[in-house]
Structure formats: C-alpha cells, structure tokens
Amino acid sequence: MSLQKHDFPSWIQPDNPGPWGIFLQQIDRVAPYLGSLSRWIETLKRPKRALIVDIPIELDNGTIAHFEGYRVQHNLSLGPGKGGVRFHQDVCLSEVMALAGWMSIKNAAINLPYGGAKGGIRIDVSKYSRKELEKVTRRYTSEIGLIIGPQKDIPAPDVNTNPQVMAWMMDTYSQNIGTTATGVVTGKPIALGGSLGRVEATGRGVFVVACEAARDKGLSIPGARVAVQGFGNVGGTAARLFAEAGALVVAVADHTGIIFNANGLNIPALTDYVAEHKGVKGFPEAEAIEADKFWGAEVDILIPAALEQQITLENVDLIKAKIIVEGANGPTTPQADDVLSQKGVYLVPDVIANAGGVTVSYFEWVQDFSSFFWTEDEINQRLERIMRQAYRSISEVAQQHGVSLRTAAYIVACSRILQARDLRGLYP
Ligand SMILES: NC(=O)c1ccc[n+]([C@@H]2O[C@H](COP(=O)([O-])OP(=O)(O)OC[C@H]3O[C@@H](n4cnc5c(N)ncnc54)[C@H](O)[C@@H]3O)[C@@H](O)[C@H]2O)c1
Questions:
Q1: Which of 13, 94, 301, 321 has the most other CB atoms within 10 Å of its CB?
Q2: Which numbered atom of ligand 1 lies nearest the CA of 158?
Q3: Would you call 118 a catalytic residue per the annotation?
Q4: Can you give the CATH number for the domain in which 237 is found?
Q5: Residues spanned by the domain of 45
Q6: Where is the active site (predicted)?
Q7: pLDDT digit string (tens) for 339-379?
C-alpha cells in the first residue's frame, strides 16, 4: 500500500518522510490482521504528542550555543511513555517519532504496562566537554519536564547516553519538583536506584530467545556455531552466554575488524583483549576475515548486534545461518527480510529479541516505587520468564496466521494497544 500525502502530519515531508515513513508502512502491513480493532488504526499513525524544545547553553569558551531537543510520546494507551534519549548529530523529528512508535510496539509485544516514547538531542557529543554535556542534559530535562515524570513518561539511555546522563536527568527533574524522584528515568547508576542486571539485560534476553528459537528448530545450543556482529554491551554479553552454554562462537565482527576461528573463539580472552585494545582486530588465535566471509560463514545462529541496516540485498544471499536473532534495532532491511523469509531462515525480530533492556528498566522502575531492591538472581529469573513467554505467545500467533515472527509481533503488539484504546474509548 503506498502512502498518500494526507497520511503525514504537516511537519513531515511526504516526499522524504525518513524513518517515520518506514514505521507507517509497517503499521499498514499489519492492519489486515487486526479484525474489528482496525477501525482504530489511525491512532498508531499519529504520535499522541511531540514536543520540540530549544536548548541554549553557555559553552566553556563563553559563547552561547543552541541545540534542538525532542520528546515524542507515540501512544500512551497501555501506560506511561517509556523509551530512551539519543544524543546524535543526525537526530531529527522523523527519527524520534519512528523510534517512539517502535517503543510502543516493543513494550506491547513484551506485555509491559507502558506506552511508547523516545527523546533526542541533535548534538555531536564528541565536540563538547563533560560540563557542556551536563548543561545540555539538564536544560533539556527541564524543558521536557512538562511531559515526563514517574507516572507520565520515563526516559532511559540510548545511543551516546549512559548512567551518568540519567543521573543528571533524575537530579534536574528532582530539583524542579522539590523531591527526589528516582523513578523518572531508568538505566541509572546502581547507587542512585539503578537495577542490578540492567547492563547485561539486553544480551541476556537475546540469548534466552535464541535458545527458545533453537529448541523450536531442533538445534542444540551445545556445539551450535554462532557468529556475532558487534562486541559491545549486547553482542559481548550474548557471545559470553553462548560460549558458557557450550556453543562455538566462531566469528565476531566489530568496527575495527572481523575475526574467525573454526574451533570457537576464546570469549573470556577476547573480552579482556577488547577492553585493552578497544576492538577485536589483532586478537591472537584467530584469523582476520573479510565481510563477505563473515556473512557467508557456516553457522547455525547469526546475531547482528551492532547497527541498523546491516543485512541488505547486498549480502543476504550469502547468509547460511538457520536462525537470526536481532540484537540491534533494525539490522535487517525490509527487502532483505523478504529474501530471508523465502530462504526459510528463522528470524527473531528486534522488537522481541532485544527487549531484555526495557524489561529490566521496567524492573528498575518498579523497585524505585517500592524502594525495595531485588537480587540479581531474582532479576535474571524474572527477565528470562518474561522473554520466554513473549517469544512463545508471538510464535503461536505466527503459526496461527502463517506469518513471520516480525509480523506476528506487530499483530500481538498492535492488538494489545488498540484493544486498550477501544476499552478506554474516546474522550470526550
Ligand atoms: N544496550 C542496550 O540495552 C540495547 C537495548 C536494545 C537495543 N540495543 C541495540 O543494540 C545495538 C548495539 O548496542 P550496544 O549497546 O551493544 O552498543 P555498544 O556501543 O556497546 O556496541 C556496539 C558494537 O557495535 C560495533 N560496531 C560499530 N560499528 C560497526 C560496524 N560498522 N561494523 C561492525 N560492528 C560495528 C562496535 O564496535 C561495538 O562492538 C544497537 O543497535 C542498539 O540500539 C541496545
């Protein structure tokens, strides 16, 4: 279905809609499966609220700089908004709108009591000092303070934001309302109400759903051959858990290079090496390979856990993996996705596979409300249970309709959101 001019709000260019255009196409694709709820579909095609703010700060050299900041609440039918804050020079309204929409889908697919939101500042962090970044963060938080709050919308880290940025956001919001409100953001440092297990949560979730997918496909994890793109928070944790479970992680790619060992890489040694050398390049006991050999490696499981748009029409034909588990957000282009489906590759989409992070963010928020903190074992067990249940319910829907797991995840998520919309009704 092609999108018409009137499908876009006046502040998005119909001839260049950016990521929001992709989100709209995904929603259109799921509409035929929504039955009577499809009468509410337009709800998903417009964000509930989009706030654009000006962020002026005094730089270290005494001049004044202005930055553009956003907070978009895509849908709040199921609960307060939840989604990260991205600091990047290319952040724009269309991107933040799409990311907020994808958070609505992810939160609903995993059945968390949240709507979807996202924020961002258009800034190149490499050009500013820590003090300048603190000022930008605090002014941004104060400006979006109108619409965020522990019961309203709870930001979290995303690209180029981290626990320190969350600590500044929490402090700024708390200063403005006159009381410490730890629950206004998640992904905080442990000492400020952060949760144990948060750092590893996304990689752990990737591993858990990969085990479920392997079971469905009759593949045993001990001895399975795995390739991982990205050896950071998500890819590094997932690789470690696979290796601990007896899988052979034979290929790892990062921004410095690609390494291969047919007998399985020594992941603890690689982790130490990357901590010291800031990348996998030059790791001993491994052969350096080219990108084509990485994508075409004889593996059972492939984990893209680096960037978006990595599996494309250029490399999709090379792929021999039986299962792909998307650790990154949006690593597969829609065209490559169709080819993978035709090839019979079993793909667990990002909206389920990397939802471990937001799930433990939810635990952090719950713990902050009760000021009672759980052990890491409790957190990991609850995380694993939620991830397994989400995977199971989505794979049942996929079988029922004969569709991919990605379409099934959108069916489950959109049905939950629109059912809430239907039950709540329109006001007035
Ligand atoms: N961290 C989380 O909780 C979380 C949650 C959900 C989704 N994600 C997604 O997972 C992905 C990775 O996030 P992360 O937190 O692990 O980031 P990270 O910064 O810790 O690691 C990123 C990794 O990708 C590698 N990389 C960068 N450019 C590359 C390139 N051109 N080719 C190959 N590798 C490259 C880097 O070397 C690094 O190893 C992102 O898409 C992110 O949005 C992360």
A1: 301
A2: 43
A3: yes
A4: 3.40.50.720
A5: 17-181
A6: 118 (proton donor)
A7: 999 999 999 999 999 999 999 999 999 999 999 999 999 99
